[in-house]
Amino acid sequence: MATILITGASDGLGRALAENLATDGRHTLLLHGRDKTRLSDVAAATGGESYEADLSSLAEVRRFAADVAATHDRLDVLVNNAGIGFHAEGTERQTSADGYELRLAVNYLAPVALTRELLPLLHRATPSRIVNIASMGQQPVDLDDPQLTREYTDVAAYCRSKLALICHSLDLAEELSGTGITVNSLHPATFMPTNMSRQTGLDIVDSLEQGVAATRRLVDLPELAGATGRYFDGEQEGRAAAEAYDREYRRRLAAVTESLL
């Protein structure tokens, strides 16, 4: 039996993954969401524990982590799934509770901060796993304008946040090498039938079941127990954008990240 935390579990891929894991009847599921009603629904359907938090606030992220630590002394798997996508008609630039560009805050800074806060629980459960839901849509963060104040589009903001998360995953995998905690990122599937995908106005490509299967492999497939520092495209190991493998770029991104956290 494993204790598994899934962020963004009240809808889309996160909910489908929780429901899939619940069929085993052997895991303790910790389910995060922002919508209280939907979160209650998935908790009731899966037998999971619900944690309500707005990940656009770093204070809320840290409070959420403290709530988890107050009720659990170990965490076997952390799935950083929660995120904000983009829209067919585009959106104006938005900011988080901390004044940061919203997609950078929710899709990148929140999982970085949450993971950092939960590392003690992951250490106690080794071997344990961190799974970061990224995307094949990737663009490098402009390190001179990380808040995307110039030439903003929500597509660019989304793609930049996802590549940043892949870069962080690679750095964290190296940092945690030999500890028993693995860190991997993946593009689970392309434009699944979720609310996030529908907002893009683009055609559905892959099934939700494909995304769940790809993600679940990283959650508990025995053959991937020691895999770390990898990027997966669906169920196959893939190759992220070039900047992810540029150590100088990652060093500079990490410095910017630290200044924001």
Short description:
With 261 residues, the chain is of the alpha/beta class. Helices cover 43% and strands 14% of the residues. Strands 3-2-1-4-5-6-7-8 form an eight-stranded mixed β-sheet, with helices on both faces.
DSSP helical segment count: 8
* Helical coverage, percent range: 40-55%
Content of β-strand:
5-15%
User: N- to C-terminal separation?
Assistant: 33 Å
What is the residue-mean pLDDT, rounded to a whole number?
Answer: 93
Rg over C-alpha atoms, rounded to the nearest angstrom = 17 Å
The low-confidence runs, each spanning 5 or more residues with pLDDT under 50, are none
Question: What general form does the structure show?
Answer: globular
Largest sheet: spatial strand order: 3-2-1-4-5-6-7-8
Q: What structural class is derived from the secondary structure elements? A: alpha/beta
Which sheet architecture does the biggest sheet show?
8 strands, mixed
- State the total count of DSSP E strands: 8
Write the element-wise H/E pattern from the N-terminal end onward: EHEHEHEHEHEHHEEH
